[in-house]
TrEMBL record:
GO biological process: carbohydrate metabolic process
UniProt EC number: 1.-.-.-
Protein name: Putative oxidoreductase UxuB
Keyword annotations of the record: Oxidoreductase
């Protein structure tokens, strides 16, 4: 196969030219890396978040690499904000082909000290935002007869709970359950719903819990013996987003964890 034929084949499998991707939480470290990957594959990326400065910075970074992006200010849990984004894209002749639900917060609180307020706050950001976005953008995909891809960012702690992050683990486990339910619900309509569970990638929501002792424990249980680099999520994201390469993948949870999930003793 010639180089040009090989390039064309890969573009057919993984290319996203002409697609629009909405990345909720795209102003963060991992969400930003996901936005970059989608843009480099040819998608127009809408970076969604509340921090306009961080959003503008991410858009500039994408555009410097010849990608297409814009920032849209929205609260991930606010239905009206997300409906406004759907309307905004319609006025530009665009529809959402790919949705990434990447908003998330964490806290390391002993179980008996977890307040109702903390529990509700974490579940609101980590789970309610996914439910609302899937309703808003899922309805738009159905209305416009789009074979779309929804990628919900879960966590390895959704499968095997990690110490001291009770609420986070419970909320991400619920994200996995919702992902599977929606995958079953929308498969015949051509909407694929999958989860992506990163292993240990230093990011805003986990820096406070990464004490030296915890880092040592993580390395002991990670065969790769290192943290992940945000760019290492790109391959998994493109597979799940791609209309061709990922066309028969739905209802799954893809772990990108350096082997953490296969480690016992």
């Amino acid at each position: 196969m010639s180089e040009s034929s090989s390039s064309q084949y890969l573009q057919t499998l993984f290319g996203l030219t002409g697609k629009t991707a909405v990345v909720i939480g795209g102003t963060g470290v991992l969400g930003g890396a996901i936005a970059d990957a989608l843009a480099q594959a040819g998608a127009h990326v809408v970076v969604v978040g509340r921090n306009a400065e961080s959003g503008a910075s991410r858009v500039r970074s994408i555009e410097e690499k010849q990608g297409s992006a814009e920032f849209f200010t929205a609260d991930s849990t606010n239905r009206s904000d997300l409906e406004a984004l759907v309307d905004h894209l319609k006025t530009r002749g665009k529809a959402v082909d790919i949705l990434v639900n990447g908003a998330g917060i964490n806290a390391a609180t002993p179980f008996l000290e977890i307040s109702d307020e903390e529990w509700d706050r974490i579940f609101r950001v980590n789970l309610l935002s996914v439910k609302v976005a899937c309703q808003v953008f899922g309805q738009a995909m159905l209305d416009q007869n789009i074979s779309g891809s929804i990628i919900n960012i879960a966590s390895m702690s959704a499968i095997t709970p990690l110490s001291r992050v009770f609420t986070y683990s419970a909320s991400k486990a619920a994200v996995l359950n919702l992902t599977q339910n929606l995958a079953r619900e929308w498969a015949e309509q051509g909407i694929r719903v999958n989860a992506l569970s990163p292993g240990f990638f230093p990011a805003e929501q986990n820096r406070k819990v990464l004490t030296p002792e915890r880092v040592a424990s993580i390395m002991t249980h990670t065969p790769a013996n290192r943290f992940g680099d945000p760019d290492e999520l790109a391959g998994a994201v493109l597979l799940l987003a791609a209309g061709k390469a990922g066309s028969f993948i739905t209802g799954t949870n893809m772990a990108v964890d350096g082997g953490f999930s296969c480690m016992t003793i």
